[in-house]
Specification:
alpha+beta, 5-stranded antiparallel β-sheet, about 20% helix
Length: about 140
């Protein structure tokens, strides 16, 4: 099996910067693998909030993660600044597959790349609900 090459910044449509924290490092002196998943979630939701497409406190719809994955290519550590590249690989009726590349400082090649799938549900019933038009419109701008 051939290992995929890491992506480049040009492979992504939107970007969101996140500062690493002292507690992100593990005993080996680099960012612990579980932190990458937190960065994916923070980047996508932060970008959606900034675009006005997500109201985490009062919106009628919320996204629940149903699947995730990550490939690691290079180490990152505090005090690196991480730029998350974001794109939508699949836009469905109630679900979205986000792909995220994590870029260390000014690097053009991703240190890690991952994905997660959100199923959007009604906040009250937790039943899948079609993406609202505002969210869909914002997501369509980053579909690859």
């Amino acid at each position: 099996m051939t290992r995929p090459e890491p992506g480049r910044r040009a492979d992504y449509r939107a970007f969101y910067e996140i500062a690493t924290r002292w507690l992100d490092n593990d005993i080996y002196g680099h960012m612990n693998n579980v932190v990458h998943y937190g960065l994916f979630d923070t980047a996508v939701n932060g970008w959606l909030i900034k675009q006005g497409a997500l109201d985490i406190h009062g919106g009628k719809q919320i996204g629940l993660v149903v699947e995730t994955g990550c490939r690691y290519f290079a180490e990152m550590a505090y005090p690196d600044l991480v730029t998350a590249g974001i794109r939508v690989a699949k836009l469905g009726n109630t679900s979205v597959r986000y792909e995220v590349g994590l870029f260390r400082n000014d690097d053009d090649v991703a240190a890690a790349e991952g994905f997660f799938i959100h199923v959007y549900v009604d906040r009250e019933t937790r039943k899948p609900a079609p993406l609202n038009s505002g969210l869909r419109g914002v997501l369509e701008t980053i579909v690859m």
